[in-house]
Design goal:
InterPro entries: HAD-like_hydrolase_sf, HAD-like_sf, HAD-SF_hydro_IA, HAD_2, HAD_sf, PGP-like_dom2
Number of helices: 9
Protein name: HAD family hydrolase
Pfam families: HAD_2
GO cellular component, one term: cytosol
GO biological process, one term: DNA repair
CATH class of the largest domain: Alpha Beta
CATH architecture of the largest domain: 3-Layer(aba) Sandwich
Structural class: alpha/beta
Order of helices and strands: EHHHHHEHEHEHEEH
Strand content: 5-15%
Radius of gyration: 17 Å
Shape: globular
Length: about 210
Amino acid sequence: MIKVVLFDVDGVLVDSFRAGHQFLIDVLKAMGYPAPTKEVFKTAFHLPLVPALKHLTKSELTEELERLHEIVDRVHYHTELLSEYPYTKEMLEILSHNYRLGIITSRNTDGLTKRYYPFAQTRSLFSVAITRDDVTHYKPHPEPLLLAAKKLRVKPSECVYVGDSNTDIEAGKAAGMKTIMYGGRRNKDADATTSSFKKLPSLIKALH
């Protein structure tokens, strides 16, 4: 029986592609690197900040990482570029009546509390939030998902994880959870696929 629904943030709860792209452009510019195109940025969109920067620059960034916190604190994150997917808030409220909800994100805690929550106004709906600051291993490793289940005192098999990347589905499967691929992508290992938040309640019910 499904008791918990866990969500990725970027690409699922919020469309942050434009904001994330601009943020990395500004960070890389401050570090002396050229701006990535949108196509190149897509390859790093789901990575935590440091792995994303290493991937985009093809460098270990040994010296630059020493002043990364200073750079990130100085760079403005354009929350005005964030947008919601249709029916997100309404469906979260409906789901919260039957399930406990949680967040699994590669953002750090500040990125979640200072950027996503103020934008979405949904913080009260979530019983747990696991960020990259809470774990040693990031997705596709199952550690973040297993930690969420542990905090909520449920079995992994009683959870559904909704993500928008192959990394999300791999992490969910490794954790022993049901998975739903959200957005336009297909993944043969996902238990269900949808591009509409309105369909989530019925899809989750069918996974019981």
